[in-house]
Design a protein that fits this description.
Number of helices: 7
Distance between the termini: 61 Å
Strand content: 5-15%
Helix content: 55-70%
Number of strands: 3
Largest sheet: 3 strands, antiparallel
Strand order of the largest sheet: 1-2-3
Oligomer: single chain
Length: 199
């Protein structure tokens, strides 16, 4: 057989990378920014976190993998629909409960205010730890908007349902109507917050 051409020899050459045994285990999972760099990109109209993972065995810093994760930091029309549907899922069965109607008549207004505070606090905590924990600094407005939108949309859904079944005595006893809405909005807003986590 004749000698192989230089082109064939180059084609058969392989880059010799160190074996796994020769690589420090800590280098395979680096914690420094030299091996992993994240950026925010808009893909299909939605923000995503794109992490560039580089191969620690390649001294040229060739990208080894891309990790793309959706960022739920913008309140989009899809999120609003999820909040409305989530609030309705819990508000519909609870609104037909006679115990809740009676509770609105007997529960002091101070307790109603406490329920309002607890609702907003729980929504704010859940939204922060699930969506904005690592992106809070530059998205404070979006965070506040999402928390308030979740609660007030839940109030509107509950108010609409109670009005339809004639259990909001608007014009006759507005305070009772508001109390019933806030009571039912407490569990409904929790359901709305959970449904908003769907991607």
């Amino acid at each position: 057989m004749g000698k192989k051409s230089s082109k064939e020899e180059k084609a058969n050459e392989q880059v010799q990378l160190p074996s796994l045994e020769e690589v420090n285990p800590h280098e395979l999972y680096p914690s420094s920014n030299d091996q992993e760099k994240s950026s925010i990109k808009r893909i299909g109209g939605y923000l995503h976190s794109v992490t560039h993972v580089r191969d620690p065995r390649d001294h040229k810093g060739k990208i080894f993998n891309l990790i793309v994760k959706p960022l739920m930091i913008e309140l989009r029309p899809r999120d609003i629909m999820q909040i409305i549907v989530g609030a309705a899922l819990f508000a519909i069965p609870v609104s037909f409960s006679e115990e809740v109607w009676s509770l609105g008549e007997t529960l002091p207004f101070t307790n109603i205010l406490i329920l309002t505070f607890l609702s907003i606090l729980l929504i704010a905590s859940f939204v922060y730890f699930n969506f904005y924990r690592f992106n809070f600094k530059n998205h404070v407005f979006e965070y506040v908007k999402r928390v308030l939108a979740t609660y007030f949309l839940s109030l509107l859904v509950v108010a609409g349902i109670l009005t339809l079944i004639d259990k909001c005595p608007w014009g006759e006893n507005n305070l009772l109507a508001i109390k019933r809405i806030i009571i039912i909005a407490f569990p409904a807003s929790m359901s709305a917050t959970l449904s908003d986590t769907l991607k």
